[in-house]
Amino acid sequence: MSNARAQLTDWIDAHFDAQIAFLQQVIQVPTDTPPGNNAPHADAVADLLQGFGWHAEKHVVPQQTVTDYGMESITNLIVRRPYLAGGPTVALNAHGDVVPPGDGWTFPPYGGVIDNGHIYGRAAAVSKCDFATYIFAARALEALGVPLRGNLELHFTYDEEFGGLLGPGWLLEQKLTKPDFVIAAGFSYNIITAHNACLQLEITVHGKAGHGSMPETGHDALQAANKILSAIYAQLPGLKKIKSAVPGIDSPTMLVGRIDGGTNTNVVPGKVVMKMDRRMIPEENPVEVEAQVRAMIEAAVQGEPGIRIEIKRLLLSHALRPLPGSEQLVAKLQKNALEVIGETIPAQGTPLYADARLYGEHGIPAVLYGAGPRTVPESNAKKADERLELEDLRKATKVVALTLLDFFAA
């Protein structure tokens, strides 16, 4: 390892306690989405960065836009670190919004408690941890005091759980950024180069309420909804037969994740609302898939007396696919992971979907890499007792810092 590279990793070791303390502070400000009141977290992060002598630009999404979207407040942050002219612009992106904690926690979900080499808390692994990964990787880089060429940007955004359109999507649409490369939040032992697309629909079944003693006076929306459910789940064996050629991605999936309806036990249900999720492998065409799903739903209740349905698109997230330039990101990250972790980490796809696709839609090569375990289940991400092994945070920070040095070294 060269002197500069050794100095860089030594700096991370020397400041690791400070990095853990920073991550605890980032975890301790709640960002449950919904309801999505996330501006206070952005303000807190900006204040912490000011303590490092950094300025975070606050880009407030207009209130009416946020309200119409179903959230309460969004302030996205961009930290720009300009170096000498002549190098690339590399952006690091992590999101601060999280799903609500839910039940079953052993540790307080917003405590940032350290126990047996792990830090616990909602977003400890996805993806407030990478606020700490990216900030301390960048601080280590700049602490070297060597000439650097290019521009580093840190994007801290607050709309991943609702689809990212008011997070990275909004920053890009407003032309507030256009980096050459992006590394987005991920895990320490693999590099994600592709991910699934996702279609989410809200299906409202309208019937007519009636007295439970005289069900013939109503039109049962739940019976009609059951026909739609049966049609959806009848598709699953066929979807399992469709296989992706992308390593790490298997088959399309489809499920109904939420059902609300009815008035009372003794009333014919007059209205039922279902929310469904259809994951698409990168080879599928989202427009065609949406048309097929809508046609299937409509056919399931066609001819049902007194039944009317509405289908509303909640989300259409496109797939992430490798773009020219992605191979540079992969090569540098793999080289540095081999040096730090001691193994060649794979570059593969994931069935999840993430904000990184939005950079890809603007022609910007992006991969996912950050702090986390080998698999999502190990982290308890989006479940009780979400956690991150602290050594994985240390390793990922070193890998990212060395990769930044490869990009910016003059």
General description of the model:
This protein has 410 residues and is α/β, with parallel strands linked by helices. 35% of the residues lie in helices and 25% in strands. The chain is built from 13 helices and 17 strands. The protein has helices at 3-14, 16-27, 39-50, 63-69, 129-143, 168-173, 221-234, 236-240, 286-300, 326-341, 356-361, 376-379, 390-408; strands at residues 57-60, 75-82, 84-95, 113-115, 118-120, 149-157, 181-184, 191-195, 197-206, 210-211, 253-261, 267-268, 271-280, 308-317, 347-350, 366-368, 387-389. A six-stranded mixed sheet has the order 1-2-6-3-7-16. Strands 11-13-9-14 form a four-stranded antiparallel sheet. A hairpin with a 2-residue loop joins strand 4 (113-115) and strand 5. Helix 1 crosses helix 5, helix 1 runs antiparallel to helix 13 (390-408) and helix 10 packs across helix 13 (390-408). The two termini are 18 Å apart. The model has no long low-confidence stretch (mean pLDDT 96).
Strand and helix layout:
Elements: H1 3-14, H2 16-27, H3 39-50, E1 57-60, H4 63-69, E2 75-82, E3 84-95, E4 113-115, E5 118-120, H5 129-143, E6 149-157, H6 168-173, E7 181-184, E8 191-195, E9 197-206, E10 210-211, H7 221-234, H8 236-240, E11 253-261, E12 267-268, E13 271-280, H9 286-300, E14 308-317, H10 326-341, E15 347-350, H11 356-361, E16 366-368, H12 376-379, E17 387-389, H13 390-408
Parallel strand pairs: 3-6, 3-7, 7-16, 8-15
Antiparallel strand pairs: 1-2, 2-6, 4-5, 5-17, 9-13, 9-14, 10-12, 11-13
Helix pairs in contact: 1-5, 1-13, 2-5, 5-13, 7-9, 10-13
